[in-house]
Amino acid sequence: MRLALPVLVAAGAAYAQCSASGTRTIQNSGDATAFANCRTFAGSIAIATSAPGPIAIDGIQTLDGNLIVTNNTNLRSISGNQLREITGTFEANDVQNLNSVSFPNLEKVDELLFNALPNLQSLGFTAQVSEATNVRIENTELQSLQGINIETADSIVIVNNRYINDVRMQLGNISTELTLEGNNADVKVAFPNLIWATALTFRDCATVDLPSLETLNSSLTLVGNAFTNFSAPNLTFVGGALAINENPNLAEVSFPLLEEVVDNLELANNTKLNKIESFPELVTIQGALDMNGNITDVSIPKLNEVSGAFNLQSKSNVESACQPFADLKDKDKIKGEFVCSGDLEVVGGEGTTPTGGSTVKPTGAASPLNVQHNALMFGLAAAFFL
Ligand SMILES: *[C@@H]1O[C@H](CO)[C@@H](O)[C@H](O)[C@H]1NC(C)=O
Ligand SMILES: *[C@@H]1O[C@H](CO)[C@@H](O)[C@H](O)[C@H]1NC(C)=O
Ligand SMILES: *[C@@H]1O[C@H](CO)[C@@H](O)[C@H](O)[C@H]1NC(C)=O
Ligand SMILES: *[C@@H]1O[C@H](CO)[C@@H](O)[C@H](O)[C@H]1NC(C)=O
Ligand SMILES: *[C@@H]1O[C@H](CO)[C@@H](O)[C@H](O)[C@H]1NC(C)=O
Ligand SMILES: *[C@@H]1O[C@H](CO)[C@@H](O)[C@H](O)[C@H]1NC(C)=O
Ligand SMILES: *[C@@H]1O[C@H](CO)[C@@H](O)[C@H](O)[C@H]1NC(C)=O
Fold first, then answer.
1. Do residues 329 and 309 make contact, with C-beta atoms less than 8 angstroms apart?
2. Measuring from atom 14 of ligand 1, which residue has the nearest CA?
3. Nearest protein Cα to ligand 4, atom 1
4. What's the Cα-to-Cα distance from 324 to each of 298, 329, 368, rounded to whole Å?
């Protein structure tokens, strides 16, 4: 009994120090040293907007809560020498002078949200953060994402980091979105292990490498990229739209295994893309097939169903390219409006009406009468093919 009391008191003191019912706010570096004996801190830690640095949250291994620093103009450095896991959000938002973030053992956070950090050039995540549900890195001066190597996530958004020129992760799948946009114009992007994803958006990238991608539950968007070629060698299914627009150097596109696109397939304003012979296995487009630019050849040999409109508008002549699609329209395999025009000065997307140029029209442009006629003929045709 004599020993028990001091032990209990010590444990109680440690408990009070190592937890907070809501958020513990740190005003200065001295406040942070109070955590030195806490292996786990239960509760959130915030750094006061006026707190000067450096703030070292040393000792804590697991932060069962959030770590938040927002709107602070004084803080230059934040660190945690033993921190391995943050079960909540690690947010640094609008910390103008922050230039050092050092968490050499951090491997796991639920959300990593970094925004408006104009002096942050590198991440001191030596052990690499490999588990996170959501990652959002915006408006930083980071030179690379070294230190972030996520295996699986709901969302990863990396935008407007004008110095990041290399993004490479072991990511195997992404259940909501992966978006890269507005980073360095030379950014090389590679997700060598990515097998399935929901929505993928790549804008303003120099190269994008997705060698293993097999399935997209939603869309793939490639806009304003600098690459000369793009290939998705293992992709068979796009569960949303596939949009490849305004990539000024793009001359070659390859989707050798793609069979189905559930929404629109759009290739617009890729001024150097002359030949679209990129979809040898594509059978079904449940939206529109919409192409414009300076296109000379289009071949989608297995195409058998377009539920929406067909639009091909080109600066070059497309009379022979149009023919197979006009035939599909005649067979009612293209359901929506049909526009196929070449030799145009101004090309437009689906829904626009080209002026001038040369136009190919389906011979039996599907009037209700023709549709009816086709339906009547179907029995005979079926009998013939038997
Ligand atoms: C940021 O902090 C300053 C003073 O420290 C305050 O005046 C301002 O309202 C804060 N801004 C936001 C968005 O919290
Ligand atoms: C997602 O990717 C990770 C990492 O490659 C893998 O361990 C996991 O099994 C994948 N999950 C699904 C549902 O595909
Ligand atoms: C996406 O599709 C893959 C493969 O078909 C499937 O395993 C996964 O559960 C789907 N994910 C979502 C979020 O629907
Ligand atoms: C492409 O898919 C095939 C069949 O699923 C697989 O064997 C191959 O390893 C994949 N290629 C890549 C680069 O992942
Ligand atoms: C595709 O582009 C890369 C550089 O972006 C280049 O190295 C490669 O040769 C190109 N491949 C083809 C087939 O043009
Ligand atoms: C293509 O370019 C035209 C003219 O600049 C523009 O009006 C149109 O919105 C662009 N379409 C797409 C899908 O980028
Ligand atoms: C269209 O492409 C052809 C073939 O590459 C080229 O000769 C022509 O100059 C291009 N026209 C325009 C308007 O870009």
1. no
2. 71
3. 234
4. 9, 9, 22
